[in-house]
Amino acid sequence: MTAPRTALVPRPRAAEVLPAPTGPRRPWATALRTLACGAAAAGPAIALATGTAPPPLIHFTVLANLLVAVALGWSAARSWRGAPPLPPYLTGGVLLLAAITGLMHHLVLVNYAETPAPATGWPLAANLLLHTATPLTVAADWLLLTAPRTLRLAHIPLWLTAPAAYLGLTLIRGALLSPGSPARYPYPFLDVDTYGYAGTLTQALALGLLFTALAALITAVDHRRPNVAGWIQHRRNRISPPAAGGLK
């Protein structure tokens, strides 16, 4: 007698990539994140189109808004597909960039006489989008659409790589440009011609410590805030009609 044959179960090949699990679409989250992405992208677009001086691409605000626009656009697409949300180390970094942009402008840069304030028209619209609308929409996305207690202190060094990279880029660019070049140093506190490298790095270190404290505060608030996103999802599930069951 021969042993009974067993059915051969095909094994998945190593090259096969299983599709990521998806859930229900989240149209309200998609709408809010699309509007936030549009606001973050509109500010740099207006600044570039109007040719405001100094060149806008040099500014941390413009670069931060572009990064925020990419992250929110990606998050909106995932919400529409029903894919899992972005990981906390990304959402926390986006929130910190937006917070730095808004707080630095409204609390620090307004005290410098060298910083021109746009009067009316498109420059004023760009200023409001870059420094006010984008930080507020990012904060609303964090408070209303993300789960609490997900940010970690271990994420902070990763979040601070963007400001540190900008500092290095600014100093290298300023060293390569000749003295007297327009917008050689885009911010007064990073002006090596005025403070020297020692003074500039000292001020940058002080700002880095403030950014670290701000990141720690955001993390602490995240562990204390209510789960608004879960409450909204629970309300939607209660309001939605139950699915029709099969005949018995």
Taking all residues together, what is the mean pLDDT? 85
Estimate the helix proportion, in percent.
55-70%
> Topology as H/E string?
HHHHHHHH
* Outline type: globular
Q: What is the strand tally?
A: 0
- pLDDT < 50 runs, ≥5 residues: 14-19, 241-248
Can you walk through the features of this model?
The structure is a single chain. The protein has helices spanning about 25-50, 60-80, 90-110, 120-145, 155-160, 160-175, 190-220, 230-240. The protein has about 250 residues and is an all-alpha fold. The chain has one domain (about 25-240).
Topology:
Layout: H1 27-50, H2 60-81, H3 88-108, H4 121-145, H5 156-159, H6 161-176, H7 192-222, H8 228-239
Helix pairs in contact: 1-2, 1-4, 2-3, 2-4, 3-4, 3-7
Q: Which features characterize this protein?
A:
single chain, 248 residues, mainly alpha, globular, disordered C terminus
Q: Briefly, what is this?
A:
The chain is an all-alpha fold and 248 residues long. The protein contains 8 helices and no strands.
